[in-house]
Amino acid sequence: QLSAQEAYDMSGARLALTLCVTKAREGSEADLDALERMFQQLGFESTVKRNPTAQQFQEELENFQQAMDARDDFISCAFVVLMAHGLEGRLKGEDEKMVELENLFEVLNNKNCRALRAKPKVYIVQACRGEHRDPGEPVSGGDMMMISKDSPQTIPTYTDTLHIYSTVEGYIAYRHDKEGSCFIQTLVDVFTEKTGPILELLTEVTRRMAEAELIQEGKPRKVNPEIQST
User: Fold this and answer.
1) pLDDT, position 25
2) What pLDDT score does 141 carry?
3) Which of 81, 103, 105, 167 fits 173 for a cystine, CB–CB 3.0-4.6 Å?
4) Within 13 Å and on the Cβ side, how many CA atoms surround 16?
5) Residue 68: inside a domain, yes or no?
6) 173 domain residue, yes or no
C-alpha cells in the first residue's frame, strides 16, 4: 500500500486531451467512445479534437498547455491521448504530414508547463511504430533493473511522465474496423474495472494484451504495449 506522500494528490482538476485522426482509421470512433466513457467515470474534464493536421497536433497541445497555465485552480494531472497512423517517433496528421512525438511531449514538460510541474502527465499513443509484425516467441529470458538514488533541489525537465505506447518500438499496432483497437479497448476495460496505482493497472493491460491472439491477414500475431516512466 502506498503511503500518502508516495501518491500524487488527486483532489484537483483532472484534464484530458484526445487528438485523433479518424480518417482512414476504421474503428477509431469505437476507441473515442470508450475513452470518453473512461474519462467520465474517472472524473476528467475531457476535450476531443478529430482529424488534426500535423501542425494542429502541435497547436492543440500548446493551447491545452496555455489554458492549464492560465487556470487559478489546482490541477492534479493530465492525460493526452494521441491516435494516428505513425512511424517510429512520428505521427501522421490528417494532411499526411508528420509531426515528431518529441515535440509534442516537450509542450507539457517542467520547463514549458508550470501547471503540471511535479504532476503526473500520461501520454497514451495508439499508433504504429514501424512495420514489424510479431508472430510471437516461446517463453524464456530474464530481466535487469538499475536504480540510483538522490534528492536534488531542482527537478529534471522531464519528470512525472508516463508514455504508454500501443506497441513496442518498430512494430505495428492493430485496430479492428468495428471494435476499435485492442490497446485502447483493453486499457479502458482495466481503468474502468479496477482501481490501484497506475503502473499496476498498466501491467494488467500489458498482461491481457500479451495473452490475446490477434489474427491479422489470417496469421496469429502478438502485440504488447510499452510503458516508459519517469
Assistant:
1) 86
2) 40
3) 167
4) 19
5) yes
6) yes
Split into its structural domains, the chain has a count of 1
Contact 181, 173 (CB under 8 A): yes
85 catalytic? Reply is yes
CATH of the domain at 81: 3.40.50.1460
CA 17/CA 62 separation, integer angstroms: 11
- Catalytic-role residue among 20, 85, 113, 163: 85
Range of the domain at 23: 13-132+159-181+225-229
Q: Pick the catalytic residue: 77, 128, 163, 182?
A: 128
Tell whether the torsion through CA atoms of 80, 82, 88 and 92 is positive or negative: negative
Task: Encode 130-148: b = buried (16+ Cβ within 10 Å), e = exposed.
Answer: beeebeeeeeeeeeeeeee
Does residue 77 carry a catalytic annotation? no
pLDDT at 11 over 80: yes
151 within domain boundaries: no
How many whole angstroms separate alpha carbon 90 and alpha carbon 183? 18
Mean pLDDT to the nearest integer, 162-170: 83
Rounded CA separation 225/204 (Å) = 11
Q: Which of 20-29, 50-59, 94-103, 114-123 has the lowest mean pLDDT?
A: 20-29
C-alpha cell at 215: 489474427
